[in-house]
Prior knowledge:
- There is one protein chain.
- The protein is α+β, with helices and mostly antiparallel strands and 206 residues long.
- It has a single domain (8-204), classed as Lipocalin.
- It is built from three helices and eleven strands; from the N terminus they run H-H-E-E-E-E-E-E-E-E-H-E-E-E.
- Helix 1 (11-26) crosses helix 2 (34-51).
- It starts with 10 loop residues before the first helix and ends with a strand.
Amino acid sequence: xxxxxxxxxxxxxxxxxxxxxxxxxxxxxxxxxxxxxxxxxxxxxxxxxxxxxxxxxxxxxxxxxxxxxxxxxxxxxxxxxxxxxxxxxxxxxxxxxxxxxxxxxxxxxxxxxxxxxxxxxxxxxxxxxxxxxxxxxxxxxxxxxxxxxxxxxxxxxxxxxxxxxxxxxxxxxxxxxxxxxxxxxxxxxxxxxxxxxxxxxxxxxx
Length: 206
């Protein structure tokens, strides 16, 4: 079943997430407090599972700014994951993730770029991705790092923990790879649960 965010049942969490995205991007308005936003994300995840929503890889393509994240606590309750307290990413740090596709049609393959900017420091990680649309899972592996300071590149080469070659990456089972499980994708924002159990909420780069 493809995504449909117009029903009354999911209107509340879409409203909360839309308000959070607008307030974070425009630097005005009141952001929903972290507890409310976490509850909205959990409601979105539950709704996606109940409706068995699937999203195409194409809806992820583009550049997204990380807005809000949660961690996970070490204590587990009845085998489940206990979320840590969520927080908005401070505005003095800018974190982007970009997804690009390959030239192959309907392959679900592409590239991920994760970029962190902190003052004059830029850190950029890149690597391959593969998207499994039936489960909305995006597996990835970072294998290249670029670091620049005041606009000058000081490091630009493969990285040790990216030992998996791209051709090998596509043959590995997803259980052996880091991944995001996306449960919400719109034109303005996306949300996912990471392999470790934390939640992440991104807004489209304006």
